[in-house]
Amino acid sequence: MIHADDLVITGLGLVLPCGDGLGAAQASLASGRPCFADLAAVLGQGRGAACTAFDPTGIIPPMQLRRLDRPSRFAWGAAHQAFRDAALDPRPLGEGIAVAVGTLTGGSEASEAFMRPYLQRGPEGASPLLFPNSVANAASGHLALAFGLKGPSATFVDRENATFGALDQAVRWLRAGLAEVALVIGTDGLFPLLLDLCRGARLLARQGDPEVGSGRGFLPGEGAQAFVLETRAHATARGARPRATLRALACRSTPDPAEDERHSALAGAVAALGPASLDRRIGGGNGLSRLDALEARLGSSHPGWPAAVHPKRLWGEFGGAGGQLLAAALLEPAGRVLVTAPASSGAQFAALLEGVRL
Amino acid sequence: MSRPPHRVVVTGLGLVSSLALDREGTWSAMLEGRDGLGPLTRLALPLEPAQIAGQVAMDPDRHRTLCECMALRALEEALDGFRPDGPPDRFGVFQGAGTSGLPVAEAYLEERLAGRRGRAAEPAFQSPSTVTDALARRLGATGPRGTIMNACSSSLLALGQAWERLAAGELDLAVGGGAEGLCRTTYAGFSCLKAVDPQKCRPFSRDRAGLNLGEGAVQILLEPLDRAQARGAWIYAEVLGYGASMDAHHPTAPHPEGEGAARAMAMALRTGGLAPADVDLVSAHGTATPANDGAECQAIRRALGTAADSVSVTSTKSQFGHTLGVAGAFGAAAAILALRDQAVSPTLRLEAADPACDLDCTALVAKQRVLRAALVNAFAFGGNNVSLALRRWEGR
After folding, report:
1. A256 CB near a chain B CB, below 8 Å?
2. What is the interface pTM, i.e. ipTM, of the complex?
3. What CATH class is the domain A7-237?
């Protein structure tokens, strides 16, 4: 449990299926229209929310672009926006900037692309250009090179809310004085084997768009969200304007992945935050009953809360490993926003943001 | 930086390695100079030039991956019959992963390429956090969990995470470490990068030609000192702190002068409250690749200055091969046992040292010496560097 009212978010960058940047995301949330469509064959067979409008021109040099996997491209684009939004030139700070990444799919796209020809043709089919991206922390390495970031770095891969684990770590580094600024990133990219596996495991909605509470399944998405996090004192000293205060962050886990146990863990995380009243609530419902049920039970036990907005209904599962939930919390002015990030097992996270402004 | 409020000690250590399936068997074999590298039989890769691996004498079972099996076995040894009591939300599990469930994905992809349906495995079965969850189930832990995939520095960073939370007083007990199994993707990947030595690897040697791959698991039980003493636990060593940095130099190659690695070590000294002259041992990353070992020795000199001349350096890669995600935890295990027994395990096959590796790299035979504090290094793709600071437990 971290009470962190001295920490503020001063920069936000978004690469989402609805488009790049805050304007596209705000319009998408306001319209409530899902971004799912038939996917290009290179991404997999079926429907999903792909970042078709992502345009790295002028941001990622063409030579580098060819060497990057999708999660790294998206992360680069989002980080570029976030640093600009925070009015922060990262290079002079270098060693003072930490990077914490959450991802569910990082490294997997490159692993598949590397192994497909290897399994078909043997060693002569293996490309040395692909293998370096087969690690989940490829994105953080590319970001370090792109922006001259030299502080601590960690990449978390804990299921649907890995980016909350990254946020937790970033808070610790800032608190310990091991970094002056932290770049927190959620990033994921679609690839064929991912869809194939999810379809085989009957996790995907087979008809229509996902509906929270339907139990029909989710649809996959991709994208990246970048958050510049720093102490209020650091932000004030450099004249930065906070988008929000990270008031508190809590996590509870359960040894048993059964719904009741996970619900207790999520409810415990929320209770630890102690939100007396809320202006907005962002949830992690995605159309799959294992997550939706937790959100529904949480809502029904707090009838006074506002109805939850579930961004995964619009932008898909995977697309930032929970980062999309944090991003949605920052897209509308509010006094106090609760973000709940349930996961299919492991840790359940909740975060409380205050003083959100555009 | 002020010291955190709680001292943290190692009270349990479990090892599953290619030398033995337990801690003391592995450690005594290391001190005797035996290596765990042998013919690769787990994977059929006849076209690969390297047919050597540090292979563990265990297999996956029907419901668990090899990583899960090895991790659970190592945890049992670390617990050594101890049944943790107290609030379960104050028990945490932190794991580093490299490949984890990748063999499952490889098998599925192979089936699909052959036109077969494949086992529609739950994607979660391949998730690296599956091991973290399995360990938490065994412990009954409901506190924080973390699964880090920072390639080859993953498990050392996971130990740092565990230390951080215990030192802050947020937890009463934490398990840190990792598990890694051999798989085709890493074999093929390092091979096509020309980073694999078809012979047994030779860290710090003039003629070193690359790494060998290995597998295994390490689980380390960490507790606040006061709780460990209150229950009369055996204390192996004290964890003092850690450092982490990025090179911002190259996607796969280390900084040639070890600039980022030196900063990680300096940060570990700082968080650990150590002076360079306090350090007697560096359990090195020491992969035996031409790029790593010279740069790491330069980094040690940068971080320790003239004190580097009196440290012992050793590489566990010469015994186990490069165990990727769990390599850092293997290095930590070797340092913890070295501090306990005041003995440095040798770097095998170090016949002629590279002039660029002009430190005492503990060639060929183990060395008895006074060891007060140790640094453990793990470096990774993406220019990720981690260093952990440990101190001998002297009863106070």
Report:
1. yes
2. 0.96
3. alpha beta
